[in-house]
Every structure is written in C-alpha cells, then in structure tokens.
Amino acid sequence: SPERTLAMIKPDAMKAGKAGEIIEKIEAAGFVVVASKEHSLTNAQAAEFYAEHEGKSFFNELINFMTSGPVTALLLEKPGAIKGWRALMGPTNTAKAREEAPDSLRALFGTDGTMNATHGSDSFISAAREGAFWFPGALVQERTLAM
Ligand code: CMP
C-alpha cells in the first residue's frame, strides 16, 4: 500500500538550480509528488524542524545552512516511500555518498557533510511529524487510518 514521506531540497541544491532535475529523478524513481512548497525557513522554524538534533556539534551549522535560502518541501508517495526515498538520497555525508552510492542524489548534488542537497524523514513517526510541519492538514499516512 502507498506510504508517504517528507522530503526537502536543501538550499545548496536550490541555489545550484538543481531542484527541477532532482524532482525529475524523484518521479523517474516512481514517487508521486503529492504536495510541494517552496519556503525560506526562519531560525525558529529550522530549529523546530530539527529539534531532535539540538545540542549536537553540528546543530548551529545546520540551522545556518538551512536558513541560508529557500528550500522546497515535498510530500512523496510510493509503496515503501520512507526507506525508498532514503535509498535514493544515499548516505548523509556527501563524500561517503560519492564512494558508496555514486548515483544517489547526495552524491550527485551534495556539497559536504552538512550541505547534502536533500533531506528525508527517517521513520514513520518522523514522516508524520515532518509532514505535518510542512503540510498542516495533509493526510501524511493513509495507513494510520487502518491501524
Ligand atoms: P539531514 O538528513 O537533513 O538530517 C540532519 C542534518 O544535519 C543532515 O542531513 C546534515 O545536513 C546535517 N549534519 C551535519 N553534520 C552531521 C553529522 N555529523 N551527522 C548527521 N547530520 C549532520
């Protein structure tokens, strides 16, 4: 059954003009773009979105990066969308992605460990929270109705 996940195209890829190419690859991989929104996050919004990383060594750098320009948030649907989207993105660190998954989006469009082109929810719970953050009122997971 279809599953939904929350994706973002981050400011590095947006500034490089790669959003269109990334969305083409997303659709070619069989995902349906259910909703999309381009927005420049405020500091407070970025800190809320990444609350689970507060206190980590990379948190301030992450917030500075994520507020450096517009991002595109996407609600993606496909069977197994959460794991499937993370596989299409590749490893978090761009250098690792280039070694281990050279065709992945982060290998192709990322910059370094922080500026890594895309984000994806890491679990069903994260997808529900992050989906509601970007698309309030959207039904993030149809299958919650059947649970
Ligand atoms: P993302 O998948 O959006 O989740 C957290 C983000 O923090 C990550 O991608 C990177 O942009 C950034 N980041 C920077 N350093 C690290 C690190 N050491 N581990 C995980 N994420 C990091």
TrEMBL record:
UniProt subcellular location: Cell projection, Cilium; Cytoplasm; Nucleus
Coiled-coil region list: none
Nucleoside diphosphate kinase-like domain boundaries: 2-140
Active site, UniProt feature: 119
Residues binding ATP: 10, 58, 86, 92, 106, 116
Domain notes: Consists of three domains, a large central CORE domain and two small peripheral domains, NMPbind and LID, which undergo movements during catalysis. The LID domain closes over the site of phosphoryl transfer upon ATP binding. Assembling and dissambling the active center during each catalytic cycle provides an effective means to prevent ATP hydrolysis.
Quaternary assembly: Monomer.
Family per record: Belongs to the NDK family.
Functional description taken from the UniProt entry: Catalyzes the phosphorylation of pyrimidine nucleoside monophosphates at the expense of ATP. Plays an important role in de novo pyrimidine nucleotide biosynthesis. Has preference for UMP and CMP as phosphate acceptors.
Protein name: UMP-CMP kinase
Lineage start: Eukaryota, Sar, Stramenopiles, Ochrophyta, Bolidophyceae
Full-protein residues shown: 698 to 844 of 1030
